[in-house]
Amino acid sequence: NKATMIVDKDFTIGEVDKRIYGSFIEHLGRAVYGGIYEADHPTADEQGFRSDVIELVKGLDVPIVRYPGGNFVSGYNWEDGVGPVDQRPRKLELAWRTIEPNWIGYNEFMDWCKKVGTDAMMAVNLGTRGIDEARNLLEYSNHKSGSYWSDLRVSHGYKDPHNVKTWCLGNEMDGPWQIGHKTAYEYGRLANEAGKAMRWVDPTIELVACGSSNIAMPTFPEWEATVLDLTYNTVDYISIHQYYGNRDNDSQNFLALSMGMDSYIDTVIATCDYIQAKKRGKKKINLSFDEWNVWYHSNDQDSKIEPWTIAPPQLEDIYNHEDALLVGCMLISMLKRADRVKMACIAQLVNVIAPIMTENGGAAWKQTIYYPYMHASIFGRGTVLVPLVKSPKHDTKEFTDVPYLESVAVHNEEKNEVTVFAVNRHLSESLSFEIDLRSFGAFRIIEHIVLENEDLKASNTAANPDRVKPHTTGNATLTDNGKIEAQLAKASWNVIRIK
Ligand code: AHR
């Protein structure tokens, strides 16, 4: 079992936009209440934010966080979440059938973003609302002062505008589950008019139109074509979402699912380019993969949750080792299209299908998927190099010719470092991996990080938070002819750092 990869510093795919390492906080389950915020937690700061969670988020160096939804945003009145907290309404939240107390809203979230050192990606409600709420929220957020909404912000104690740059025009509007679900035509018209008005308030913003909720939607990819036809002049990005699961316990097939992500990305790029050609346009529409992850472990448990409580434990997937491997493959999939995937959000960040878990009043810990996400975010900045990969292949239930090796390299010119990310999909055998960095001259190996585990189903819990964690004793070595050789353990995620 031998795989090879050749990379050359002159053969590049594109610059990594650091925002592909974004994440997502929705008013859903315990993401906000019990996740980022818990006023009586022993680590709570003066605003009630959990400092233990802030530290774990900082460890990921998350550049952008999408907020406040998700399905939640399609029924949300942002005005309910600003001003004196004791005067904020408690409302029925229809997307997840809970009670929303509005203890946290727009301004508090902006404060939290500052504390963790991230930017916000805001979504406006185009489900139950429209042009007016979108432009008012933007005026409240970004206009300096001297108008009704900006002065209201000032009166709420926020003198300086928040200057949020990235705005999503609704969420998953193609999905029948969405409050205010629309046809592509209805949505495209509304998104275009809301986007135009928003740009008149603040011409410096970037706008993201809703693409498909997943590749299996019956309206995919006609949805993208119709929406972009109607919004081409107004928007900069089209969003796509995808979650995967291993419901049949077929791990070989599960680890191949990122190949579906590859073709999803390629089809959406093709659709963007078709519309650009049709419009005789200069502008390239890029992709915001603003929800992606593994999501299935919690499905049964969620169907039993009583409605109308505050912050029930919804979507609390406990991730295992194989989930971390697929997350690694999905990150590689996006890096391989770094020329067009400019933003992405692992969904979500805390408790809700998340790399970070907490107990109310108790511990916070790293799930298995924390590690590949952290490695990519920290080491995967720079220019992605074209990966010329040769690998033995296998077939799975849904995919043919699945390479055992999934790999990509990122060149950080500033630091003069190359990082190779590699997954060995083989479940029972190691893979011998040779990397040819022909144009890089002399270099040394800084470290070879490995995430491996005998048990594909091993996971981290509050009682045993370190059951799955990486080590740095991978065996990558320099060969006499100036290449790198490594044995990639069966079912492993690898980060080989070179300088
Ligand atoms: O991330 C969980 C949910 O998944 C989001 O609210 C929605 O956009 C998607 O269906």
Question: Low-confidence runs (pLDDT<50, min 5 residues)?
Answer: none
| Fraction of residues in β-strands | 15-25%
* Mean pLDDT across residues: 98
Task: Count up the helices.
Answer: 11
Bound molecules: alpha-L-arabinofuranose
How would a textbook summarize the main sheet? 8 strands, parallel, barrel
The global form is globular
End-to-end CA span: 27 Å
Question: What percent of the residues sit in helical stretches (DSSP H or I)?
Answer: 10-25%
Going across the biggest sheet, name each strand in turn.
Answer: 3-4-7-8-9-10-11-12
**Total beta strand runs:** 25
**What structural class is derived from the secondary structure elements?**
alpha/beta
- What is the CA-atom radius of gyration, in angstroms? 22 Å
InterPro entries: Alpha-L-AF_C, ASD1_cat, GH, Glyco_hydro_b
GO molecular function: alpha-L-arabinofuranosidase activity
Subunit structure: Homohexamer; trimer of dimers.
Pfam families: Alpha-L-AF_C, ASD1_dom
